[in-house]
Design a protein that fits this description.
- The chain is mainly beta and 458 residues long.
- The chain has helices at 2-9, 443-457, and strands spanning 45-49, 54-57, 69-73, 82-86, 89-90, 97-100, 103-106, 115-121, 127-144, 148-152, 157-166, 170-175, 187-188, 191-194, 203-210, 217-233, 237-239, 246-255, 259-264, 267-268, 275-280, 283-288, 297-305, 308-317, 324-325, 337-344, 351-358, 372-377, 381-384, 387-394, 402-410, 419-424, 431-433, 439-441.
- The chain contains 2 helices and 34 strands.
- The strands form 7 sheets. Strands 1, 3, 4, 5, 8, 9, 11 and 14 form an 8-stranded mixed sheet that branches.
- A hairpin with a 2-residue loop joins strand 29 (381-384) and strand 30 (387-394).
- The longest helix has 15 residues, at 443-457.
- The relative contact order is 0.08.
C-alpha cells in the first residue's frame, strides 16, 4: 500500500521531455477521371443593356463530371471580387443570379455588373475561361451650367454640360428660339461659348445627351443679357396735315426694362393736350389726334435704365416728301427729255424748282457745264390722295449726251429736299444703206463702238 501511494506521489514528467508518436493522415487519392473542358473555351465579349439580362457561358463538355465549377466576378476599381457559385451552391444571395447547367444568367442588369467573369474548374493546374460583360445604359446628365445665366452686353458666357452613359454620350446644343447665334441649327461639344453677346443671343439653350440607348436626356439653360436701352423708330419723319391723326412710335429694347419719356423741341411734354402716350411692351408711342400746325416739330423719346440712356428723334412735319423720279434715264429723243416724278404731301404742291446741266462742258473737258435753273408753277400735275405726279420736258438738248438734274417741290410750308437724277438723250446707233445693199454705220456710231472693237481685237 505504501508503495502505491509512493507511486502516486511521484512528480509528473516534464511535458517537453515526453515523447509522443506523430501521425500523418493522408487522404487516399481518388481518380475522378480526365477533367472536362469548357464548351466555349475562348473568352467572349458580352453586351447587355441596363434593365435587361445576359447569359454567361460556363458550360462543361461533360455536364455529369464530378469536378466542381466555380464562377466568380473579378475585382474592379469600385468593387471587391465576388464569388457567385461553387458547383450548384449559390454563394451570392441575389435573385438576379441563376445557374442552369453551366449557364449563368444575370437579370435586371446594372451598370455595376460590367466586368470580367471567371469560369473555373479547380484542378492542378486549374482550367478557366474569362468572359467580359459590358452593360450599356442610357445617358444621365451629371453637370450643367446654372439654369439662368446673366451677362453684360459685349461680354462672353460659357455654357457647359456633362453626361455619363455607356457608350459615352454625344452632347449637342440647340436653341428653343431657333438657330444658334452662329447660324447653325445645332453644335456638338461639352460646352458652348457665346462671345461678345447682345440682346439677339438671349434665349433658352438646350444641351441634349444621346448614345443610342434609351431616350436622350436634356437640360435647359436660359441666357439673359443686361444692356442699356436700344431704340428703333418706325419712321424718322412723319408727314401729316391739319386735322389728321398720327402715331409716333419708338421700339425700345433694354434689360432691365427702361423708363421712357417724350419731349418736343427739347422741352418735356408735360401737358399732352390732344396727344396720348401708349406703352405696349417694347412699343412706346404718342398718338396725336386732330393735328394742328403747332404740333409740327421734333419729338424725342428717351429711354433710361440702370446701365445707361438712349434717345431717338421723330420729325412731325407738313413738308413735302423729296420727289421720286419715275422716268427712264435713257431718253428716247435726240434733243429733248421728259422728266416725270411724284411726291407725297398733305398740302397742295404749289411750285417746283428744276436744275440741269451737261455732265461734261465739252468733249475736251471732264468738268461739268454750268447749271441752268428755273422755278415753275405746279400747274400740270395729277393728284391721287397724298400722291402728286408731275412732268417737265427739257428742250434744246444735245444728242447722245449725259445730263444731271435736281428737282425740288414746294407746298404751303417750304421746299422739299433736293432729289438728284442722271439721264441722257437718245444714244441709238444710226444705220445707213449704201447702193450695194450693205449697211454702213455713221461716224458717231463708229466712235461709240470703237472701244468695244479694240477690246475684242486684244
Amino acid at each position: 500500500m505504501s508503495r502505491f501511494f509512493a507511486a502516486l506521489a511521484l512528480p509528473d514528467p516534464d511535458p517537453e521531455e515526453a515523447s509522443y508518436d506523430d501521425y500523418e493522415y493522408e487522404e487516399e487519392p481518388v481518380d475522378y477521371g480526365q477533367a472536362p473542358e469548357f464548351k466555349h473555351p475562348e473568352p467572349q465579349q458580352l453586351t447587355g443593356v441596363e434593365g435587361g439580362k445576359v447569359t454567361i457561358p460556363c458550360q462543361l463538355t461533360d455536364d455529369k463530371s464530378p469536378y466542381v465549377l466555380i464562377v466568380q466576378k473579378e475585382a474592379t476599381d469600385t468593387e471587391k471580387e465576388k464569388l457567385l457559385f461553387v458547383g450548384e451552391l449559390k454563394v451570392l444571395r441575389s435573385r438576379r443570379y441563376k445557374l442552369d447547367k453551366g449557364m449563368v444568367e444575370i437579370s435586371s442588369l446594372r451598370p455595376s455588373d460590367s466586368g470580367n467573369y471567371v469560369c473555373r474548374i479547380q484542378v492542378d493546374p486549374h482550367i478557366e475561361v474569362v468572359h467580359h460583360l459590358d452593360v450599356q445604359y442610357s445617358p444621365k446628365i451629371t453637370y450643367n451650367s446654372d439654369a439662368e445665366q446673366h451677362v453684360m452686353k459685349d461680354e462672353s458666357v460659357k455654357l457647359e454640360c456633362e453626361a455619363s452613359g455607356n457608350p459615352a454620350p454625344t452632347i449637342r446644343w440647340s436653341r428653343e428660339e431657333g438657330h444658334l447665334p452662329s447660324g447653325a441649327e445645332e453644335e456638338e461639344g461639352l460646352s458652348m461659348t457665346l462671345e461678345g453677346v447682345d440682346r439677339h443671343v438671349e434665349g433658352t439653350y438646350v444641351c441634349t445627351a444621346s448614345n443610342g440607348i434609351g431616350e436622350p436626356q436634356s437640360a435647359d439653360m436660359s441666357v439673359y443679357v443686361n444692356y442699356p436701352p436700344e431704340i428703333i423708330t418706325e419712321k424718322t419723319t412723319v408727314r401729316t396735315g391739319e386735322g389728321d391723326k398720327v402715331e409716333l412710335v419708338c421700339i425700345v429694347h433694354a434689360r432691365p426694362n427702361a423708363k421712357v419719356e417724350w419731349s418736343k423741341d427739347s422741352s418735356p411734354i408735360e401737358d399732352p393736350g390732344h396727344s396720348e402716350e401708349m406703352d405696349k411692351g417694347h412699343r412706346h408711342s404718342i398718338q396725336i389726334s386732330d393735328v394742328t400746325e403747332s404740333d409740327f416739330g421734333e419729338y424725342k423719346c428717351t429711354a433710361t435704365n440702370d446701365y445707361g440712356s438712349s434717345s431717338a428723334s421723330i420729325h412731325l412735319t407738313g413738308y413735302p416728301k423729296p420727289p421720286h423720279v419715275t422716268s427712264d434715264p435713257n431718253g428716247g429723243e435726240e434733243t429733248s427729255y421728259t422728266l416725270t416724278w411724284e411726291t407725297e404731301s398733305y398740302y397742295p404742291i404749289l411750285e417746283y424748282r428744276l436744275r440741269y446741266r451737261k455732265d461734261k462742258a465739252n468733249v475736251s473737258s471732264d468738268l461739268p457745264a454750268d447749271w441752268q435753273e428755273d422755278t415753275y408753277e405746279a400747274a400740270d400735275l395729277e393728284t391721287d390722295g397724298l400722291v402728286h405726279r408731275m412732268k417737265h420736258t427739257l428742250d434744246g438738248l444735245q444728242p447722245a449726251t449725259d445730263y444731271h438734274a435736281a428737282i425740288q417741290v414746294k407746298n404751303k410750308f417750304t421746299w422739299s429736299a433736293n432729289t438728284e437724277y442722271a439721264f441722257s438723250t437718245k444714244k441709238e446707233m444710226a444705220v445707213h444703206h449704201v447702193t450695194d445693199g450693205a449697211p454702213a454705220c455713221s461716224l458717231s456710231a463708229l466712235l461709240l463702238l470703237l472701244p468695244t472693237l479694240m477690246l475684242l481685237r486684244t
